[in-house]
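Contributing new records

If you add data, match the layout below exactly. Sequence lines come first and carry their own label; structure lines follow with theirs. Keep one chain per record. Anything else will be rejected by the validation script.
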Amino acid sequence: MPNSFESVLEEVQAQRKLRVWSLIMTFFGDAMVPRGGAVSAHTIQLVMERFHIAPGTVRTAFSRLTNDGWVIRERQGRNSIYRLSETGYQPFAAASERIYAAPSSSDKNKQFVLAIAPRLQLDGRETKTHLVSPRIQLFDSDDQNITKRESEGWFIVEATPHCIPNWVHEELLPQKLADGFEEMMQQFANVVAVSPIDSLALRTLLIHEWRRLLLRTPIIPSRILPDHSAIQRCQRQVMETYRNCLDLSEEWLNQHGQGEDGNLPPPSNLHLRFHHSDMLQDLQLLDNSVT
């Protein structure tokens, strides 16, 4: 039986209270950045009303965001226009490679090297480039760093994805984090939004919850993740749900969204979301991700 947006919202709020300022930031990053980044206060109030958030609460959240330098407010007559500041834009931009990455199946025959540290906590001199967890680093088979790690007493093992033991997967994705992805899948299972405003609210809530979980999770190279892992399955569900509500949500923004020049400009690059390269393939994202 399909779930409605309302039922999903109730389930999420039963677990924890949504932070209005954080929800607004998700809306900016997901829906407004592709449309130039500027939006009227009235537009955001209409969206937040679907979450049963009162206008006064929205104004309070914007006061906080403005005072903290996350958004910039501009007056246009009697209207207020908000846009993300550089401070507010950078976290979402840095994380977007992970948030909107397309699910992928790893090459199960790909060979690589796992280096496992002899101690639980690495010191501050260790590079993040190959870091998978506090104990594990991943290298291509011809990487010169392997010899250095071996001389430092690391356990070096050549591996392919199918032979990675379960304890490595559990260290990369601890059970508490895995449970969070499982819970999200249950909450958003079979959800259907039939109206444009519900589609936009569902899209916002979906990315809000996905982003929250994802940025608490280490960047795990997909080549060593089993396809049935909680994060892989949740990513596929998020992609499907997002695509299902995208057209109607954009319809609402076309008809009701207001920016600095009246109607919002058309979106750009939305077609790239959940279609670009593997979010976990480039380990250098470790230096850029916001956690």
